[in-house]
Specification:
Layout (H helix, E strand, L loop, with lengths): L11 H64 E2 L2 E2 L3 H27 L6 H16 L4
Antiparallel strand pairs: 1-2
Helix pairs in contact: 1-2
Amino acid sequence: MIDVPPIDAQPEAEKAQPQRQTNIEFRLLEASAKAKENLNREADQRYYLRWLAVIVALAIIFMMSFALFHMSHNVIWGTILTVPATYAIALVVSPIISITAILIALFIAAFRGFKKDDEENFISAAKDGMRGSGIIS
C-alpha cells in the first residue's frame, strides 16, 4: 500500500515559520532598543557639551575680568597714567568687548538656539557697526 500523508500534516517549512517569525520580531525589538539608546546618548551628549561650553565661557569671563582688573591697576595709578591714553583705553575696552560677546553668544544659545544664517547676520552686523563708528570705510 502507498503511504499517504495525513491531510492535517504541515510540511517542515511551515513548522519552522513561527520560529523565523519569532527571530525577526526579536531582531526588530533589539534594533528598536538600540535606536532608543542612541537617542538617549545623543541627548546626554548635547546636555554635557552645553554645560561644558557654559563652564568654559564662564572661565574665560572670569579670566578677562581678572585681566581687566590687573591691567587697569597696573596701568592707571589713581590719576596718573603710565602709558599712552590709546593703549590704556585698549587695555580696558578689549576685555569688556570679549566678555560682552561671550555673554551674547551664551544668551542666544540658551534662549533661542543658533540657526544657520546667524553667522552671516553677525558678520553683516559687525561690518555695519564698524562702518558706523568709522573704524572701516
